[in-house]
Amino acid sequence: MSATTPLPNATILGYPRLGRRRELKRAIESYWKGSTSEGELLETARELRAATRSRLVELGLPAAGGAVPESFSFYDQVLDATLALGAIPGRFADVAAREGASDLDVYFALARGDKDHQPLEMTKWFDTNYHYSVPEIDERTPFAANAASLVAGVAEAAQQGVEPRPVLVGPVTYLLLAKASDDAGEGFRPIDRLDEAVAVYAELLSALAAAGASWVQLDEPALVSDSLSVPREQTLALVERAYGALGAAPAAQRPQILLTAPYGDSSGALLRLGALPVEAVQADLVRGTLPIEAHDSGELARAFEGTQLVAGVVDGRNIWRTDLRQSFGTAEALQRSGIAVVVGTSNNLQHVPHDVNDETKLDERLKSWLAFADQKVEQVAILARGLSEGSAAIEAELAEVDRVLADRASAPGVRVDGVRDRVSAVGEADRSRASEGDRRDAQSALGIPSLATTTIGSFPQTTEIRKARAAFTRGEIDQEAYDGFLREEIERVIRLQEQIGLDVLVHGEAERNDMVQYFAELLDGFAVTEHGWVQSYGTRATRPSILWGDVSRPAPMTVAWSAYAQSLTDRLVKGMLTGPVTILAWSFVRDDQPLADTANQVALALRDEIDDLVEAGIKIVQVDEPALRELLPLDADRQPAYLDWSVGSFRLATSGAAAEVQIHTHLCYSEFGEIIDAVDGLDADVTSIEAARSRMDVVEPLGDHGYSRGIGPGVYDIHSPRVPSVEEQTELIRIAASRIPGEQLWVNPDCGLKTRGYGETVESLTNLVRAAQAVREGAV
Ligand code: MET
Ligand SMILES: [Zn+2]
User: Fold this and answer.
1) Is residue 719 flagged as an active site residue?
2) Does the CB atom of residue 454 touch ligand 1 within 6 A?
């Protein structure tokens, strides 16, 4: 490294990796299939990285000085850190030792598993819908620096005339997100190995310095989370220890360090972060704030003497055009207090799509309110120019945004009086149902047996279903033909369930492309994109809908399908809806009013849908809330308010149902102890929940809690094609029945079956029904 070179005053924390047209997805999947070689895949990746760098420079990030992040990943940034750290779990040692195994082979084996290895577990990255591969660490997991791909990125960029800033998950966050491997000793915690990991990070940094990198970015979002295994105060102490050590290396042996704290509020830590021996610190000023008093008193400026502050004032989580005047005010006030300010994003832009200008079908007016990744980079560049040249230099841009925001505030559909009046009229009574006892009595007429068997909603989405949908979308078949196809599909699924002997049936959700988008397309207030893909994990991406206006339901959305399914059978068919919290969590939601207000609007639309379902003869309605846990704020102080509105919106959606209507909900994650009171608060008659992989861990807290309503801990792990045997499922039901009374228990899979094939589905469900039968006849 040469003498210190400050970070230019514009940067972003990272950029989407799959490519504007998901080129990387296609290249990787064709490599997996064996249709292309590793060489071809590496070449596509190299081209994508080059295109990203040029694009970022074109959009206004300086090519020199480390403003351009090198944030490419073949699959996942946490997995990248596992490889860089050489922390290959013992159970994959044979893969790594295999003759001719490349780094990429090992990488994909960890991500996806193979016939002899279960893949690394996946779980959600902080409060996003992105999933990372969970590192498995024990006392003997090897740590050995592997800087190859980091160094290669720097060299590639240099050839292009770009001086990049390699990005890596920092050691504290990495270890706090890791789990102890099955081989770990009693009480071992991955974070116990922090000092060893830091030593390896120091080697990585030294390799980067030798390769000519002037900056490196280490991400430590653990700093803003109260949901990790150590209290936040202790995380900060661990960060001080790690960066005290990393920063102490002689200047020639490391790049300058940018330490980031994205996804939440770091205001309580910022003074201490500013005092660390690193050259720059980032704070998320969208989700978080500044320590106001310290800012006003000059204490913040003193802590940041000699340290640049990357002010994350452009939101990297949503797709709205930033209020530039307000963001500029924040950045300028920091600069005026004497701090060396860099304008940045609140987090890596991996959570937003590439470019609004790719959308050809969106309403032009709506489009003018939006900013995807490329537009965010431009916003950062504008703000930075304002800092360098004074606000007059960017007044035209600020005024343009003022105009756009005013237009958005007054546009038709954004505020609809009828919708607003209805929400304001909501009272507590609208959020409560008859008492639990009255409901139980009323629902006994349904004749549901104990250990009732059911599924979570979707049946396999076969190629034929996808083809028919695509043909319909392209206009190749008409509405009538498509509806006819779906009716046949529903009839097939109903007959199949009757044959298997399930107690409560579903229609199978063949008509739904996606459990949120389906509703977004039918509700007013939403728009859907053509190219707005966002990586969910690995090569998978979703296309979140845009919730831009007041939400209402112009017509029933699911009634025809559910009623048709019910008309085919004497057994009960569950109606199937997606809940308000999940609809919000998996969409890009308007940022001009509290989420609670938006959730209530969605809830009222669902409430009407439930009314109509019941009117049409449906007696059980399931309202899925798989994202309830995901939206839980990282910051403990903000959790009670969140739980209050999220639970409240679910109750508003479901409380119109009379006592004899049975309301189900479905949650699919197993770490649920944290929100057990909230789940209780949903007041659903029956809750199905993921449990198979953790071998019924959830029944313990439920039992302790004295949970009194229906509960269906999953006995069939639908994440794998494996068929669980009758014995295996019997055993899981027995474990559940040992803690929860049989008449409360339901028997069901962990989640929907849409990603499964029919062969394994039929076998697994047949075994599930037999297992329930066995337990009914035996123990219970
Ligand atoms: C991610 S939860 C999925 C629930 C939905 N009803 C399904 O079965 O597919
Ligand atoms: Zn689920």
Assistant:
1) yes
2) no
CATH for 50-410, options being 2.160.20.10, 2.60.40.60, 3.40.190.10, 3.20.20.210: 3.20.20.210
Confirm whether the ipTM is greater than 0.90. Answer: yes
Predicted TM-score (pTM) above 0.90? yes
- Name residue 22's amino acid: R
DSSP structural state of residue 251 = G
Q: Is the CB of 193 under 6 A from ligand 1?
A: no
Phi, psi of 325 (to 5 degrees): -65, -40
* 515 Cα nearest atom in ligand 1: 5
Say if CB 351 and CB 534 are below 8 A apart.
yes
Please state, in angstroms and rounded to a whole number, the distance separating the CA atoms of residues 147 and 173: 19
Burial 203-231 (b: 16+ CB within 10 A, else e): bbbbbbbebbbbbbbbbbbbbbbbbbebe
Nearest CA to ligand 1 atom 9: 752
- 567, 573, 577, 581 alpha-carbon torsion, rounded to 10°: 160
CB of 627 shorter than 6 A to ligand 1: no
Question: Smallest Cα–Cα separation from 345: which of 311, 307, 394?
Answer: 311
Q: Do domains 50-410 and 436-777 have the same CATH topology?
A: yes
Strand, helix or coil for residue 379 = helix
Mean pLDDT in residue range 724-746:
95
- CA angle 250–253–104, rounded 5-degree value: 150
- Write down the domain spans for the chain: 50-410, 436-777
Specify the CATH class of 436-777 in words.
Answer: alpha beta
Summarize pLDDT for 630-664 with one digit per residue, the tens.
Answer: 899 999 999 999 999 999 999 999 999 999 999 99
Number of other residues whose CB lies within 10 A of the CB of residue 437: 10
Helices (H), 391-477: 395-410, 417-424, 436-443, 463-473
Max CA separation in the chain (angstroms):
80
Nearest CA to 75 out of 535, 397, 530, 532 is that of 535
| pLDDT of 555 over the 60 cut | yes
